[in-house]
Amino acid sequence: MNALSKKILAVKALAVLALAAALCLDASSQTTRENILISTKDHVVSISTEGDKVVFVMEAIRDFTDEMKGLFPDVDFMSFDVDVDQNGLIDRNVDLGFFATKANGLCAVYLIDSGRNSTCGAFESMGRVELSFQGTKYEARKHPIYRYAIPKGELSRGRDCFDVVFTFHSSGRGYTYYPFRALKSTHALAKTIRIKL
Ligand SMILES: [Ca+2]
Ligand SMILES: [Ca+2]
């Protein structure tokens, strides 16, 4: 990657962060309005609320092959990590990761360190996840979509902001993280997208 490409990526990352900072949802308004949190040539993440839950819809808009039931590394999946105590560090048994199981159930885990997390269900989330492979307003052709609905109370310790890192994995393309980072570790919370509820 040349210097210009790196600069462009850095500017894009800043633009995403600036967008996230500007998107402050008012929890008292019970809004279901959908806001776009991330929009790149490959991925879209939109956010809305549904009662006491935050809904993240993650779409891989340039992936037109369904490997959502595949085996790693030939698998499409989308997940996110949350810095629950918002200190920029991975804290064992505090910070959380949200995935989907092969049976489409929610898999909530505690993060342990940059390379490890607990088994599914170690954290008992009241959230849910739905997987689909279909066209949307962001991309008419069928593509993988994960829709997470997670109680707000699970995402931060009583504050009105929470800090999230989104992970996309597509078969044949590997990982992409938002905020953008190089692939050095499975989990990292030093840079997050801050969302105000
Ligand atoms: Ca795919
Ligand atoms: Ca933390």
Written account of the structure:
Strands 4, 5, 6, 7, 10, 11 and 12 form a 7-stranded antiparallel sheet that branches. The chain has a single domain (25-196), classed as Sandwich (Immunoglobulin-like). With 197 residues, the protein is mainly beta. Helices cover 10% and strands 39% of the residues. Strand 8 (128-134) and strand 9 (143-151) form a beta hairpin. It is built from 1 helix and 12 strands. Residues 63, 65, 67, 76, 170-171 line the site of one calcium ion (CA).
For the structure shown, list the relevant keywords.
single chain, 197 residues, seven-stranded antiparallel beta sheet, five-stranded antiparallel beta sheet, binds calcium ion
Summed up:
By secondary structure, the chain is mostly beta strands. The protein has one helix spanning 3-22, and strands at 35-39, 43-50, 53-60, 77-82, 96-100, 106-113, 116-117, 128-134, 143-151, 161-170, 174-178, 193-196.
